[in-house]
Amino acid sequence: MEKIDLNTEKKEILNRYKALLKAIRRRMEKGDKEMIRKAFDVALESHKNMRRKSGEPYIFHPIAVALICADEIGLGTTSIVCALLHDTVEDTDITIDDITGMFGQKVAKIIDGLTKISGVFDHKSSLQAENFKKMMLTLSDDIRVILIKIADRLHNMRTLDSMAREKQIKIASETQYLYAPLAHRLGLNSIKTELEDLALKYTDPDGYNELLQRLIDTEPERKKFIQKFIEPIKEILSELGFKFKIYGRPKSIFSIYNKIKHKGVVFEDIYDLFAIRIIIESLPENEKSDCWKIYSVITDFYHPNPDRLRDWISTPKANGYESLHTTVMGPEGKWVEVQIRTTRMDEIAEMGFAAHWKYKDDAVERENQLEEWIRKIREMLESPEENALDFIDDFKLNLFADEIFVFTPKGDMKTLPSNATTLDFAFEIHSKIGAKCIGAKVNHKLVPLSYKLKSGDQVEILTSNKQSPKEDWINFVVTAKAKSKIKHALKDQRRILIEEGKAVLKKKFFKLKLEFNQRTISDFTTWLKLSSSQELFFRVAKNAIDVSEIKNFIEYKNNPEKSPRKETTPTLEQIVSQARGKTDMLVIGDDMQKLDYKLSSCCKPIPGDDVFGFITVGEGIKIHRVNCPNAIQLLSNYAYRVVKAKWNSQQLISFLAGLKITGSDELGLVNNITKIISTQYNVNMRSINFDTDDGIFEGTIMVYVHDTDHLTQLITKLKKVKGVMTVERIDEENVQ
After folding, report:
1. How close are the terminal C-alpha atoms of the chain, in Å?
2. Considering only CA atoms, which of 505, 503, 499 is closest in space to residue 547?
3. What is the pLDDT of residue 568?
4. Residue 91 is a catalytic residue
5. 112 catalytic, yes or no?
């Protein structure tokens, strides 16, 4: 074991502490330095015998979190003190009362909030949905609880290399699923981007590293292009007397990865690999006109794409983001995105709400925006019966959605997620209006409840006292508020139907001389293979169970041998217990322990893929690739149903994999492709489908391969065929 040099460590701790003081120096008032020093001393003493997984002193972590709060979020002394102390109550002997005595009520309240929610996101447990709901309630107490928690997660992601692989995947999945959207909603743009990139680095390391290398390789060419683009603009802006910064900013690896994966484009075809950002110094009263002047200068040089103009200066995003975006045709026939903003707008875009507080004139308005967001969260939490996992899905959806701006008949503006319908708008106005909504007039034209709104629409809601929420409403609302209210109303309706069904069943039992007691109801429920007596009563009320089934049940009770009862389905707990066993280890191959498993159709894993097992109720264990489209949600929300899985033996079993091939329609091309597949690699094909259009062909082939190496070799060989442009593995279930 490597010997620890304590003197060197002490010097490093002191250097990091000095860097923290330097970062907050400008915002410190009288007494702040002493308060920070006191917090540092308490944290240092509390964590003195503790080390991180990497082997470094634990105190490095709270200092790093405090530095992120100061330098990257722009928080003040109270937050720095809380960041330094954030793990003390949970991990050491210090209590909340101790914190109150040393640092006062405000610091203690934030530390208490951080301690209460630490179990939600720690490395030992999964994301617990109920705890997450509780965490969101702490938002109303102090937003700094969430900001410090985001800083804590960012440092954990930056130091994730020292964790075990399965922990890396789980933590990265949680980060992508929830932390990045939270950072986005709070306006922490640079942190959101870094969290997404780091999450991708661990959930799909191959994809991440390939794109990183491509960006490094193309950097010189990009720099040259950017220089050529900005040179004439710099000259004119200087002549006009603007003080400005102009530079090219590469897009995040995560956003490039998403475009390639979901839009089917190749790296070379992504025109917005970077954006040109122009940041000007401007007086508050001139900001809007100055930004439009810059826009005018740019469009004098380069032709704009009218469909790609985004004005977030006149109507800022709900997280406070302000900027003017346009896409123009630059040199060499390449589209280029240009972002125009002032210094104030740029600080707010990068550092979020903390930066809002710097600008005193806007402080009240920005606080109101934050309060409005918190109010919406509390509305989502109103229903105590709401399924917590559904809540997280709905909440996350609303966190990350793009926004549209629509108007009431009186001209009041409402902000909704994109794809919101007239029914979402009705619930946004008031839950009672939503519940009685029968349709709407959009721009004075009659439209249905499912009509998708667009920015600028004026909406008048039509209601009827005879209307009540229907089950299919859930399918065409997107806001968490609407979903929550509809589900709550449906549960109330279901409760009434259950009572009616119970009364009806009692009468039917009485007519057939069958006792109506708990034992009989339980036996009848089990015989029908229903989940509960509530489900039984509900089906009776819906006329889904008739008298003949009750008569069959009576016959079964009298002669059980003649009509044997089928075995009941094992509970989820029994399945989990069987799958996990004593070792919490699932091996695929020769040592399968006789457990049923299926390869999931959503990502079609093959030996060599990084995989995990997910326990389902009806289909045993499903094996998913770690970079499966559904993996993030499964690993975040259902970690207790996830088991380790690895390929144990590489015996020559064939697994189905899909390939998508594009190229120019050369003579004999299809013949050359099929020859390589079937002759050179002895691979069996299950299906082949080629389509040509104006000299370009696109084909999908389903082949049987042994493992990822086998598949990679085949792809490499196919790429060398004359006329072939791209060959990529596809996952979609519908490609057969």
Report:
1. 54
2. 505
3. 47
4. yes
5. no
